[in-house]
């Protein structure tokens, strides 16, 4: 006799869900039984850790626009989900998490785990999701699941949680499909699109026409609205500056002459420099977070502003916009483009953009060509960029990895092919995110970049990559420590002890660990070895790890570079200080630690140098 797990599996498949990421438990076995009988329509990817199930579902959703679906069981499975849910909540990523629960008539026994693994899951998930529901009956289950997809995909998208008690999952299903099992409009975000009033569009267009130095700042909302092509068309006509947040990278091709890269302390010096000179800033699908707003020194008081966002609460949250445009990014940018008319040439502004970009490119070129030992991370990114195809997906971990990617690997076409964990900015996203990306796009290559600290979080998921033979190249930028923490402590506190990830003579070998888990592993200590190692990894029809030992003083943060250049004898600023960057230059070569001679990597392949 079919059970309610069959109904849930049928509804997921009918809602366009091809893959579910998670880990089963006794309370959710009925769901897995139902999916196993529909394996031609929906499949399950077994993760090694429930946190990573949410990250994989998040990456799936970013690339498809569909809600990413993950499943966990009650208690210890459930309490590992919040890291991924918060990432999706803050980044506005649609997700549906299906969570097991104790039987309904046991709920009074959940406190303090009297009934094994029990706790108040509904209250717990209310704090880290867009919405959460506890299914109260068999009859209510179909409608709650339909509602979950509607809420997850409606503006502003986000993660929702459906908590299903054990006895409801196991209850018999009569096989009768509900008349309105799914709504095809909620299979993809955004579920609904709206536009700003014509008068507001005209006001914004007039403001743009009057601007002498307009700038466009594109956030993750551009990709959430599937608006990169529309935004690029707009930027092509603006005769102004275009920059992006980390999450917005790819909103416009960074090969365009007006595109100055990522606006972030980890990002492009040219973007940071030029945005301060704009007289009008158009914030497009950006919540003007602490990092994109450069510690909220942007927008400057003398800058006019236009905000474009589907969430009414974002307009005016940190500054009063001159013209707020409430609605879907794609709809508004289409209307604004139609109202734009011929734009002034803005020759002086165009020339200034070219001048500053040229200076930044000159400095970057020197960094990317550096043939030092220890290796400089920009050299790794340069070699990686040479080998990436336009359809390859790059998944960044948090911390310095985001800066190395954003500053040194250009987005060459409109669209989302760079995934950054910026909703929470937590370590450990890249490896499980790549699993979600690879499951979404079978046959396409996925590349991850992570520091050794971040990579340590999810080493176990390499076994999942190997199990499914996914085409993933994991690049580990190994400096033997938590790089951001080390520099922060050196600059502000003169103490680096808590940032160390190694001890004398003890060097974890990530490439060797990868080989033990069924992947190819390559270890690199010399700049001239990087290309051959990447060639071998890219040629492998399966997952691999390329571990590169890098300078432990290297940083993509421009204010940190300047501080190191000034020297340790200078007065120490308070944490949070915003540096003036007009005289920024590349930091001098600084000595790094001994390489460790590849300790822990004795069995790792050393790719031949051509």
TrEMBL record:
Gene3D superfamilies: 3.40.50.970, TPP-binding domain
GO biological process entries: isoleucine biosynthetic process; L-valine biosynthetic process
Keywords, sorted A to Z: Thiamine pyrophosphate, Transferase
Segments forming domain Thiamine pyrophosphate enzyme central: 201-336
GO molecular function: acetolactate synthase activity; flavin adenine dinucleotide binding; magnesium ion binding; thiamine pyrophosphate binding
Region (Disordered): 564-610
One Pfam family, short name: TPP_enzyme_M
CDD domains: TPP_enzymes, TPP_PYR_POX_like
Top-level taxonomic group: Bacteria
UniProt-listed SUPFAM superfamilies: DHS-like NAD/FAD-binding domain, Thiamin diphosphate-binding fold (THDP-binding)
Residue ranges of every copy of the Thiamine pyrophosphate enzyme N-terminal TPP-binding domain listed in the record: 4-122
Entries under InterPro entries matching the protein: DHS-like_NAD/FAD-binding_dom, THDP-binding, Thiamin_PyroP_enz_cen_dom, Thiamin_PyroP_enz_TPP-bd_dom, TPP-bd_CS, TPP_enz, TPP_enzyme_TPP-bd
Keyword check for Cell wall biogenesis/degradation: no
Gene Ontology cellular component annotations, sorted alphabetically: acetolactate synthase complex
Cofactor(s) this protein requires: thiamine diphosphate
Thiamine pyrophosphate enzyme TPP-binding domain segment(s): 402-548
Transferase among keywords: yes
Recorded family membership: Belongs to the TPP enzyme family.
The name this protein goes by in its record: Thiamine pyrophosphate-binding protein
Lineage: Bacteria, Pseudomonadati, Pseudomonadota, Alphaproteobacteria, Rhodobacterales
């Amino acid at each position: 006799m079919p059970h309610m797990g069959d109904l849930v599996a049928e509804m997921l498949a009918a809602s366009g869900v091809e893959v579910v990421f998670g880990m089963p438990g006794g309370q959710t076995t009925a769901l897995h039984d139902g999916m196993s009988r529909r394996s031609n329509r929906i499949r399950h990817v077994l993760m090694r850790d429930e946190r990573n199930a949410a990250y994989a579902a998040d990456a799936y959703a970013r690339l498809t626009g569909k809600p990413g679906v993950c499943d966990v069981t009650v208690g210890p499975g459930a309490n590992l989900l919040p890291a991924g849910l918060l990432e999706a909540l803050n980044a506005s990523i649609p997700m549906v998490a299906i969570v097991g629960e104790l039987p309904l008539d046991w709920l009074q026994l959940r406190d303090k785990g009297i009934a094994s693994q029990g706790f108040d899951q509904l209250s717990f998930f209310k704090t880290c999701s867009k919405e959460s529901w506890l299914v109260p009956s068999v009859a209510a289950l179909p409608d709650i699941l339909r509602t979950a997809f509607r809420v997850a995909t409606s503006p502003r998208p986000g993660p929702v949680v459906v908590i299903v008690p054990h006895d409801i999952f196991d209850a018999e299903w009569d096989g009768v499909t509900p008349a309105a099992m799914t709504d095809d409009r909620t299979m993809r975000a955004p579920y609904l699109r709206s536009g700003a009033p014509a008068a507001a569009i005209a006001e914004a267009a007039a403001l743009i026409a009057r601007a002498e130095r307009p700038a466009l700042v594109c956030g993750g909302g551009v990709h959430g609205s599937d608006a990169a092509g529309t935004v690029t068309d707009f930027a092509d006509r603006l005769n102004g500056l275009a920059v992006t947040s980390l999450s917005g990278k790819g909103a416009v091709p960074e090969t365009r002459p007006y595109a100055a890269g990522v606006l972030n302390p980890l990002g492009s010096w040219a973007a940071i420099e030029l945005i301060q000179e704009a007289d009008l800033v158009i914030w497009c699908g950006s919540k003007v977070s602490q990092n994109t707003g450069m510690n909220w020194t942007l927008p400057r008081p003398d800058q006019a502003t236009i905000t474009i966002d589907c969430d009414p609460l974002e307009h005016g949250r940190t500054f009063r916009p001159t013209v707020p445009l409430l609605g879907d990014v794609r709809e508004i940018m289409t209307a604004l483009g139609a109202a734009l008319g011929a734009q002034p040439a803005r020759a002086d502004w165009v020339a200034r953009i070219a001048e500053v970009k040229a200076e930044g490119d000159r400095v970057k070129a020197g960094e990317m060509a550096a043939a030092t030992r220890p290796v400089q991370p920009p050299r790794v990114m340069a070699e990686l960029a040479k080998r990436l195809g336009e359809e390859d997906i790059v998944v960044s971990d948090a911390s310095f990895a985001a800066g190395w990617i954003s500053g040194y690997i250009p987005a060459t076409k409109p669209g989302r092919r760079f995934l950054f964990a910026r909703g929470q900015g937590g370590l450990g996203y890249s490896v499980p995110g790549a699993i979600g990306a690879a499951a979404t796009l079978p046959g396409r290559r996925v590349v991850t970049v992570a520091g050794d600290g971040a990579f340590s979080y999810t080493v176990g998921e390499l076994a999942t990559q190997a199990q499914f033979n996914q085409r993933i190249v994991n690049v580990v930028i190994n400096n033997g420590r938590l790089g951001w923490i080390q520099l922060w402590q050196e600059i502000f506190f003169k103490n680096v002890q808590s940032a160390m990830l190694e001890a004398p003579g003890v060097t974890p070998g990530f490439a060797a660990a990868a080989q033990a888990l069924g992947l190819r592993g390559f270890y690199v200590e010399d700049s001239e070895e990087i290309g051959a190692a990447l060639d071998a990894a890219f040629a492998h029809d399966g997952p691999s790890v390329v571990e590169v030992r890098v300078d432990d003083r290297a940083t993509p943060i421009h204010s940190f570079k300047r501080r190191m250049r000034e020297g340790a004898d200078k007065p120490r600023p308070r944490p949070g200080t915003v540096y003036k960057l007009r005289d920024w230059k590349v930091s001098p070569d600084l000595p790094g630690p001994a390489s460790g001679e590849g300790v822990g990597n004795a069995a790792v392949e050393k790719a031949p140098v051509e």
